[in-house]
Write a structure and sequence with these properties.
The complex is a heterodimer. By secondary structure, chain A is an alpha+beta fold. Chain A has 8 helices and 5 strands. Helices cover 45% and strands 10% of the residues of chain B. The chains are: A alpha+beta, B mainly alpha.
Chain lengths: 225, 219
């Protein structure tokens, strides 16, 4: 979906707040435990990073713009917990209420233990995988981003739809988000594609700038020279 | 999706948000899908261990050691792991090098993708709409907001992190740093210079008393 999260190329936002305190990651106290909670639940095996991104993208557009980054995280986390059946709507609505109902028990593939945190964070979870076939494009190919508006999760930025660029780097094969959000890794080759500012934004693009966008095979079509 | 909560979370005052977060943690713990003590360990890891000093170490070594720079170019993930950095949100790294005619800058227009093992938690502005919307459309204007004025002939290359590659900018090594130790060089490498919204610091901006003793004698 090309929702409000897809911000590249838009006008109308205020100046960048460049003067924040670089040592204070959590200006409001609730952001600190929420940050840790989201990462801990991300290691539970109940969902993948693509599912987590897709859940944040379901936040209503007006709410997304009217709220902060960790508000988006709360929305995404609670949407996932509901979607995966980990919590019920009644449980969520009763959070903090004095007479909350007894919790409905569930299980997770993994429960992250404190002793395992360093190793889990240091290992990460690569999305790189073995390719299912050869790459469709080579470095130097002219390619166009397919013009499409899938309702589901996708990673083509709106500002690149229908634009033509040059394949600059072949990264290898990676899990394909549009499929992975539904549980199918569907490995696809991924490239950095170079677009000039003028390719993307016409005469309003910076003539001496270019944008490199990481795009998978299914997002691209060959343009004949 | 309908939000079952009235009022909605983002409209609550901070203390009520704290209560909601705590209640959710307790609920998930009672359900058996969360060990709450892991939360503190995670936060402390990013507050105390994983931050832009890691990336500055990588950059300073790249400036000092041509063989290391070559390894970064051919396999950045492996070269960064040599220094002990890697993992979540840095599983597949790419380094991009600034030069006299080229300035690199990174953004995630779709969310907030960022190389955590080398830079830590992203700054708020990196995750907010003003930077994400304008970095690709008007990179020169964005740099001006950060106080960086590049000559018109310097090309700007913006990397939009739309996939699972994570980019680390290697800023240009400042003039006048010949013979500096890696530790001193690392002090010139700010977080923003590795995002691409700043240059490396001017050596004159450093306090000479804080430099290596050997370096101080030369200074």
């Amino acid at each position: 979906m090309h929702g409000i999260h897809d911000l590249g190329g838009m006008h109308g936002f205020p100046a960048i707040d460049v003067h924040e305190d670089p040592h204070d990651h959590f200006p409001e106290a609730w952001q600190r435990p929420l940050f840790g909670l989201v990462l801990a639940m991300g290691a539970s095996g109940l969902w993948t990073i693509d599912m987590a991104r897709a859940a944040r993208e379901t936040m209503p557009a007006a709410d997304y713009l009217a709220s902060g980054y960790y508000d988006h995280w709360w929305h995404g986390l609670t949407a996932l917990l509901l979607e995966k059946g980990v919590v019920t709507r009644d449980e969520l609505a009763a959070l903090g209420a004095p007479a909350a109902p007894p919790p409905v028990p569930v299980t997770a593939p993994r429960v992250l233990q404190p002793a395992d945190v360093p190793a889990v964070l240091a290992k990460g979870a690569t999305a790189r995988c073995d390719p299912a076939g050869p790459p469709a494009f080579r470095v130097g190919d002219r390619v166009r981003v397919r013009n499409a508006r899938p309702a589901g999760h996708t990673r083509t930025p709106r500002y690149a739809l229908g634009r033509t660029g040059i394949v600059a780097l072949h990264h290898g094969a990676f899990i394909f988000p549009d499929s992975a959000v539904n549980g199918d890794p569907d490995p696809q080759h991924c490239y950095a594609v170079r677009f000039t500012g003028r390719d993307l934004f016409g005469p309003d693009g910076d003539p001496a700038s270019e944008v490199m966008i990481d795009l998978w095979d299914p997002y691209l079509e060959k343009v004949d020279d | 999706m309908d939000d079952p909560q009235v009022p909605r979370f983002h409209d609550l005052p901070p203390d009520e948000k704290s209560a909601r977060v705590d209640a959710l943690i307790q609920l998930l713990a009672r359900k058996g899908v969360l060990e709450p003590a892991a939360i503190d360990t995670i936060v402390e890891t990013y507050e105390q261990q994983v931050g832009p000093r890691n990336g500055a170490h990588v950059v300073a070594k790249a400036w000092s050691d041509p063989a290391y720079l070559e390894r970064l170019r051919s396999n950045a993930t492996a070269a960064i792991a040599e220094l002990g950095y890697g993992g979540r949100q840095g599983e597949d790294m790419v380094v991009v090098e600034n030069g006299p005619g080229l300035h690199n800058m990174t953004v995630c227009t779709l969310c907030s993708c960022y190389p955590w093992p080398v830079l830590g938690i992203p700054p708020d502005w990196y995750k907010a709409a003003p930077y994400r919307s304008r970095a690709v459309l008007d990179p020169r204007g964005v740099l001006a907001e950060f106080g960086v004025d590049l000559p018109a002939e310097v090309e700007i290359r913006v990397w939009d992190s739309t996939a699972e590659l994570r980019y680390l900018v290697i800023p240009m090594r400042p003039a006048g740093t010949e013979g500096w130790s890696e530790a001193d060089l690392a002090r010139l490498v700010s977080r923003d210079s590795m995002i691409g919204t700043a240059q490396a610091l001017d050596p004159a901006a450093l306090d000479p008393a804080a430099l290596d003793p050997a370096r101080r004698e030369i200074a």
